[in-house]
Structures are given as C-alpha cells and as structure tokens.
Amino acid sequence: MQLYHHPYSLDSQKVRMALEEKGIDYTSYHVNPLTGKNMNVDFFRMNPSAKLPVFQNGAHVIYRAIDIIQYIDRLAVHLSGEIPPVNTVVNQWMQKVDAWNPKMFTLTHTPVKYRAFVSKFIRRVLIARMAEAPDLASMYHVKLRAAYETDDKVKDPEIMRQSEEELSKLLDDVENQLSKTKYLAGDDFSPADSMFIPILARITLLDLDEEYINCRPKILEYYNLVKHRPSYKVAIGKYFNGWKKYRTLFKTSFFLCENAIPGTVLHKERAWQQATMTHHGTEAPDLTCMYYVKLREAYDMEGKDPNIMK
Ligand SMILES: N[C@@H](CCC(=O)N[C@@H](CS)C(=O)NCC(=O)O)C(=O)O
C-alpha cells in the first residue's frame, strides 16, 4: 500500500492519523504542493486533480480522504475478522467534518505576500508542465484556470467571512457534542476524530487558537487529550511542534526562494518549453497547432496578471 501525501496537507493528515490508529503499514511518498510537486507529470498522470492524498492498494487507487479512511476501516475490520455493524454516528460526523473545506480559510489567513509568491510559482510550474506533457495540457489548463479563480476568490471579503462562519458553526457543534461524550462519535476514539483533529492543528498553525479553540473549553480539553496519542505525534506533532514547525516551513521557503531567482525558473523553463514544443510538433505535426493554442492561452493568462513579471 502506498500513500502520496504531505505533512502540510490537512486532508493527508486525516488519513495518516487513521492509518496510525489502525496500525496499518504503508509506503509513504511526500509530494509537496507548495513547491508544485503535485504537478509533476508522473503524479499528475495518475491523479489529474493534483490533490492530496492519494492512496494505492495494488490496482485500487482512492483519491478522497474520507473514502480512503472508510476503506482503511473496512480493511482493518477484514484483517481482524470481526464484522461490527456500520456505525452511522461515526459516518455522520465524518461527513460533517468533510463538508468544511479548509482551503479558503487557510488562504485568507495567510500573509498576502507569501500567498501571492506561492501562487505565482505554482502557475509557472503549471505552464512548464503543460509544455512538458502536451497530452495532459487540457488537464493542466483546468488547474491553471482554477488557480486564477482561487486568486480572485481569496480577495473577496465575503469568502473569508463565509469560511470563518462555517468553521465556527462546526466548532460549536463539536463543543456541544464533547459536553456529552469524550470523543466526537462516542466515548471511544473513532475515524471521525482522525478527520477532525487536523482541523485543530490547522487553526494552531495559523496562530488562531485564541479565537477558535481557547474560547471552547470542551474542545480545548479534547485537543490536549488527543495530542498525547501516538497517531497525532506521527502525523502532525512530529512536523509542527515548537521549532520543528519552523524547520518544516523553512524547507519549503528555501526551495521556493532558490527557484524564484529571476532568470532561473522562468527563462530556463521558457527555453525548454520552446524545445519541447518543437519536439512534440515534429512528433505529432497534426497536433502542433493545438499545442500552441494551449501554450498561448497559458501565456495570455500569465500576461493578464499585473504582478507576474515583477
Ligand atoms: N476532497 C479532497 C480534497 C483534497 C485537497 O484539497 N487537498 C489539498 C491539500 S489538503 C491539495 O492537494 N491541494 C493542491 C491542489 O489543489 O492543487 C480530499 O478530501 O482528499
């Protein structure tokens, strides 16, 4: 079994916690979305959404965190030989937690300068990969368009308000539940907890504990309790406790700075794109014109961004 994931990715953390809780062994592959590694051709070919995590068991590939966790659960039951009834309470909580999308919340609480820098870098990677694998150009194009849409959305104060409101509502429901039970779906730890705890860790990473956690005593107590679990330590604590948080973040910023020095990525990639285009043009002359249309569109989108050439 293989898991493609990254310590930064909240949805990956959910799956990693569930795997640790069940004691399931797997081969781990780190794919850093902040450095555009999820756009690498081999990975993108397997998973054109480029989203993490991806779980593979033989020919079986699963893409959504909730589906992976349900699969792991069934697998663990199968291995232990017992067949407990389907726990609807656990499932309901899993669906509820899954319904909150952390993307806009995270982006709107990330400093603008850093956000713009990463976004520009990712768009350049996308354009370069498009030229590298012209057969995937239209899929890369979908991602590029989505990246521009996200850039627009993130500037909308209403989007920020909405994501904050949805999170507060989820936390209020959890607070209420934790006043009745020790864990989310009862008095035993369940996959619903594996899905929820990374949300608390994200709030901490964004330095928002005061606003969202400390004011909810039951959640605070629960958070302090679950932080002692080995699954939390392996999936989250290991990367984000104290100074390690800065080491994890530093590794990515170092990569981004190295590759963003003017004249390296952009010019090298452009020269290379020309070569690739010529190569593919010769290989499939009937498609040359379409390749150029895709690349031209990508460059046009790039040109529309007032910051991209700075
Ligand atoms: N519905 C998916 C969402 C996965 C997702 O959005 N993953 C983020 C990281 S937590 C990602 O890979 N983003 C990179 C991208 O969209 O290019 C799931 O539950 O697994």
Integer-rounded radius of gyration: 21 Å
Main sheet? 4 strands, mixed
**Quaternary status:** single chain
H/E series: EHEHEEHHHHHHHHHHHHH
Given as residue ranges, the uncertain stretches (5+ residues, pLDDT < 50) are: 261-268, 305-310
Structural class of the helix and strand makeup?
mainly alpha
CATH architecture level-2 label: Up-down Bundle
Give the terminus-to-terminus CA distance: 44 Å
Small molecules (ligands, ions, cofactors) in the structure: glutathione
What is the count of helical runs?
15
The average pLDDT is 84
Approximately what portion of the residues adopt beta-strand conformation?
A: under 5%
Shape: globular
Indicate the CATH class. Answer: Mainly Alpha
- Assign a percent range to the helix content: 55-70%
Read across the widest sheet, the strand sequence of neighbours is 2-1-3-4
Predict the CATH topology. Answer: Glutathione S-transferase Yfyf (Class Pi), Chain A, domain 2
GO molecular function, one term: glutathione transferase activity
Pfam families: GST_C_3, GST_N_2
Protein name: Glutathione S-transferase TCHQD
Tell me about this structure:
With about 300 residues, the protein is mainly α. The chain has one domain: Up-down Bundle (Glutathione S-transferase Yfyf (Class Pi), Chain A, domain 2). Helix content is about 65%, strand content about 5%. The chain has 15 helices and four strands. Strands 2-1-3-4 form a four-stranded mixed beta sheet. Helix 1 crosses helix 9, helix 4 runs parallel beside helix 9 and helix 8 packs across helix 11. The longest helix is centred in the middle third of the chain and has 22 residues, at about 155-180. The protein is globular and about 60 Å long. The N and C termini lie far apart (about 45 Å). Glutathione binds near residues 9, 10, 50, 51 and 66.
